[in-house]
Automatic annotation (TrEMBL):
Belongs to the ABC transporter superfamily. Signal peptide: none annotated. Keywords: ATP-binding, Nucleotide-binding, Transport. The keyword DNA damage does not apply. The keyword ATP-binding applies. It comes from the Bacteria. PANTHER family: CELL DIVISION ATP-BINDING PROTEIN FTSE, LIPOPROTEIN-RELEASING SYSTEM ATP-BINDING PROTEIN LOLD. This is ABC transporter, ATP-binding protein. Pfam families: ABC_tran. One of its GO terms (molecular function) is ATP binding. Residues 5-223 form the ABC transporter domain. It comes from candidate division WWE3 bacterium GW2011_GWF1_42_14.
Amino acid sequence: MTPVLQAQNVSKIYDMGTSKIEALKGVNIGINKGEFVAIVGKSGSGKSTLMHILGLLDTPTEGEIILNGVNTKGMSEKQLAAVRNSEIGFVFQTFNLLQRTTVLDNVILPLKYSDVPSTEWVRKAKEMIELVGLQDRLKNKSNELSGGQKQRVAIARAMINDPSIILADEPTGNLDSKTGDEIVNNFLRLNSRGKTIILVTHDNDLAQIAQRRIVLKDGSIVE
Ligand SMILES: Nc1ncnc2c1ncn2[C@@H]1O[C@H](COP(=O)(O)OP(=O)(O)O)[C@@H](O)[C@H]1O
Ligand SMILES: [Mg+2]
């Protein structure tokens, strides 16, 4: 079976002029379709760097990322943006929603950069919003929502283009534990529907729900 996402010998060096930070040191990962993987490690171990590189938001200094069997090395920024928009759904700790914009419009946003005809946008967005149980908040602006509700909107938005993979970086980091559990249940539900989920967290308890844990330490996989 071809993995849905592979990192081959990925290194990342941040060049700070006078000093260099080696954030990733030759990381190899293969993630299969339908897997729920947690990437764990202490703060500063390279989790977010790896997540950005796996999600094609940043390029490695060395090594390559292979998505659905296609090597992304050498793709133009425009090609990468297109692949990201169709194949990867992102969920961030800080939600990254448009403020003063409705739930519906936040979820519709990625469709504007897709091939989906505009006549389908509202129907598709409502379907995703229902999936996360926010159908009675369609017209609310995102700044009128609780943290947990905001994260559910972010999950609906991440799902809207039916991506191969959901990448979540500390998605419960700004939430209380009960709300965090609720968000995790949303990911479990998506995974049971066949979505591949990569959950980045420094929380070992949270990582227990994953089928597999990848432990990073100082930029290397140690487990
Ligand atoms: N944009 C950046 N410029 C310079 N150094 C960075 C940058 N992003 C992260 N780093 C450094 O890379 C290392 C790994 O950071 P990060 O990937 O954010 O770790 P984590 O998400 O596990 O906390 C840290 O030493 C951090 O300071
Ligand atoms: Mg981080």
